[in-house]
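Sample intake — Flavin reductase like domain-containing protein
Collected from: Pantoea alhagi
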Amino acid sequence: MSYFQPVALNHASRLLNHGPTVLITSFDAASGRRNVMAAAWSTPVEFVPARIAIVVDKGTWSREIIEQNQAFAICVPTAAIADLTWAVGSVSGRDKDKFERYNIEAKRGPELGLPVIEQGCAAWLECRLLPETEAQQQYDTLFGEVVAAAADTRIFNQGRWQFSAEHPEHHTLHHLGAGSFVTSGPLIQAKPL
């Protein structure tokens, strides 16, 4: 049973505004192969239309695929798949399909057909790569416009995160380096002063 439901695109930036580690997926149309990598650096940069920045090293196969096919997806992993998140970020997919290697189930995104991961993830976003900028030529940052998004309604509902102490396995990951993560904690609601 999937708890994923579409997220209104005007709320899509909220899926990343708390700075989680993400899984970036891509599809190589030339070979028909999928790829997935972990990334600690992603951020919303515009609200409407929702636009996202990701950092993908120019020397990686992921970067090559994203630029050739002009698209990428972002999946937001939870504590339930911390080991898998570390694993897919530690090896290249150039020689072997990481989806097969690690038995990752993925479905095709509704707009671009990119692989999106729901099992163990809180949300996903399909993004169309924006035209290259001078900064993109010089640095590792890529920009995409969100064309579809969905989230697990147990974790993100009505445009808001719903982290709870009762379900720490649903908390998103934040990479500290060398395979160490912390998770998002329970919500704290500010009170008017």
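Post-analysis note: Residues 2 and 118 are 8 Å apart (CA to CA).
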